[in-house]
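Many introductory courses stop at the sequence. We go one step further.
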Amino acid sequence: MNVREHVPAVSGILSVAALALVFAAALQAIPQALLPRAPDAVLHAIPHLNAAVSAAAIGAIVVGWRAIRRGDVAGHRRAMLATTALFALFLAAYLYRVALLGPTKFSGPPLVEGAIYPAVLAIHIVLAIVSVPLVIYVLLLAVTRSVPELRETRHPTVGRVAAALWLVSFSLGVVVYLMLYVLF
C-alpha cells in the first residue's frame, strides 16, 4: 500500500491498533507472562519518569508551535519529532507499568476523589484518545510530503488542533500525576 496516497486510511488503522493496545494494557488484558517483570523500584519510578517526560513534551510542543509561527520549518519538525519520541517513551513506560500493576488508585480526600480527580482524569483521557489519530495523521502527512506540498494539505489546520489537544492532554497528565503522587 502506498501510504502517501492513503494517509487517512493508514492513520485510521494505526490509530485503532494503538488505542486497542492502550485499552488492552489499561484493562490488564495483556497476559503478564508475555512481559518481563522489572524490579519493583523500576515499576515505582515510572510515574515520576513519565511526569518528567510529559513536562519535556509540553516544552517541545511549545517550541515546535513557536518555530512554525516564525516560519522555522526545520525547528518545528525537530521539536514535533522530539515530542513524538517523548510520547512514545511515555506510552511504552505507562503501558508496561499499567499492564503489570493496573491503574493507580486515587487516595485523596473524598471531595477530590468524588468530583475533581475523575473530571481531570476523564478530560485527560478523552483528549489523549482524540489526539492519537490527529497526531498520527499529521505525522504521516509530514513524512510523506515535501514542505511545499504540506502547505497544500490539511497538515497546518489539523496540526494546530492536534498540538493544542496534545498540549492540554500532557498538561492534565501532569496534574493527574501531582494528584496521585505528590499532593495526596
